[in-house]
Amino acid sequence: MAKFGLGVIGAGMGAKPHGLALQSLSDQIKVTGVYRRHREQLARFCETYGLPAADSFDAILADPETEAVLVLTPPNAREEIIAAAAKAGKAVLMEKPVERSLAAAERIVALCDAAGVKHGVIFQHRFRRASKLLAQAVAEGRYGALAAVHLVVPWWRPQQGYYDQPGRGTLAQDGGGVLITQAIHSLDLMLSLCGDVAAVTAMAATTRLHQMETEDFATAGLEFSNGAVGALMATTASFPGGPESLTLNFERASATLAAGTLTVRTMDGATIVEGEASEGGGGADPMAFPFDWHAAQITEFAEAVRAGRQPLSNGHTALKVHRLIDALMRSASEGRRVEV
Prior knowledge:
- Residues 134-254 form the GFO/IDH/MocA-like oxidoreductase domain.
- This is Gfo/Idh/MocA family protein.
- This protein has ten helices and 14 strands.
- By secondary structure, the chain is of the alpha/beta class.
- The strands form two sheets. Strands 13-12-11-10-6-9-8-7-14 form a nine-stranded mixed beta sheet. It has a five-stranded parallel beta sheet with strand order 2-1-3-4-5, sandwiched between helices.
């Protein structure tokens, strides 16, 4: 079977793990071209990862070998790109978040639906081995009903070199702070394992450690549709930054995902440890994590497109985490319980 043809749009800071992943997948994925407006940065990226540069976005769409595009631009520069790709009949795989606001994210998902193209969203935490093992256990009901959930994202981002960059931490470019830019990965993973959240009671703030428009700290109580309850804390003001941790308490066991490791403690005395220790990007270097999670997601996306099915992480699953973040921020702003 011919290699899957993938064009790449955008090649900024967040493109590094994608470049490494595409290098590792060269026997399965053919990059039909990479396009970025800044020509020097484009040339540097393509030279680093051995990928072909494209003269324009239109050239990538016009290439009959392009089956899909991977969109890595900031969230404020995506809607026209995705509309053009969808019109050309190309499947879309894009970095999170879908867009800056829930309404804009819904428009993008609707665009892909109307055009009949498959739409994937990068949430690589779902593709860690430990995450997949826990997802299987949950699907099987191995440990009984879920009772309580505890999510902590104790990350660090410095002012200098990160939040001082133009547009970083603003509503106009990013759409929000720690929730939509960093914790969104863990929130998406939580929803994929625990089911939908029905209501939230939240607080959000900007600590004295950062000068930014949006929040660098958020906490909330969560009420899940299945009757479980939960607690969330997410921040980029926890120096030097540590691994995110998601604990699920079931009827017969507790299970904790920390970075890339799953630890299960059953009530009959057994302890099970699976996965691999890894950096999670929680410190000052946001790209300090392995690229194999991205490679696994790109592979699954290509397989889904070829099979004519929706990818595991798609526009509609992404809208669930967008709706949760929207509810969290409304609750924090209005000082009340908000239904999702």
